[in-house]
Amino acid sequence: AVVSTQSGHYDRASLVKMGFPPHVTEGPLSLCQCHVDDKSKAELTTHGFTCPTCASKYCEVPVECKICSLTLVCAPHLARSYHHLFPLAQFTETPTEELID
């Protein structure tokens, strides 16, 4: 997709593939991928988010899956960050004399 910017230039839009992992609260004890390298914080848990592509488990989202490189997010986080994707229109300065009158 080609997107026009405020400066009049055309930039190539980049798309990011995202996965919406289900939050698992019950299941077998397993180690999450975010703590697998840090042995001091590693603990077996039954809850977490599972990657929809490779089924690896993570404690928190957003995160990039270490196994399949899919960006994992939850819908509320994505909705809250949506307004940051579009730049604001250019502000026009209003002289203070106009504000006083």
Give a verbal description of the structure:
With 101 residues, the chain is of the alpha+beta class. It contains two helices and eight strands; from the N terminus they run E-E-E-E-E-E-E-E-H-H. The chain has helices at residues 75-81, 96-100; strands at residues 2-4, 10-12, 18-19, 23-24, 48-50, 57-58, 63-64, 71-72. The strands form three sheets. A three-stranded mixed β-sheet has the order 3-8-7, with no helix packed on it. Strand 7 (63-64) and strand 8 (71-72) form a beta hairpin. The longest helix has 7 residues, at 75-81. The protein is elongated, with a radius of gyration of 22 Å. It starts with a strand and ends with a helix.
Describe the structure in brief.
The chain has 101 residues and is of the alpha+beta class. Helix content is 12%, strand content 19%.
List keywords for this structure.
101 residues; alpha+beta; 3-stranded mixed β-sheet; 8 strands; 12% helix
Name the helix and strand elements from N-terminus to C-terminus, one letter apiece: EEEEEEEEHH
| Structure annotation, total helices | 2
**Spans where pLDDT lies below 50 across 5 or more residues:** none
Instruction: For the largest sheet, list the strands in their spatial order.
Output: 3-8-7
> Helical residue percent?
10-25%
Q: What does the average pLDDT come to?
A: 83
Silhouette = elongated
Number of strands: 8
Structural class: alpha+beta
Rounded Rg:
22 Å
Strand content: 15-25%
- The separation of the N and C termini measures 47 Å
Biggest β-sheet description: 3 strands, mixed
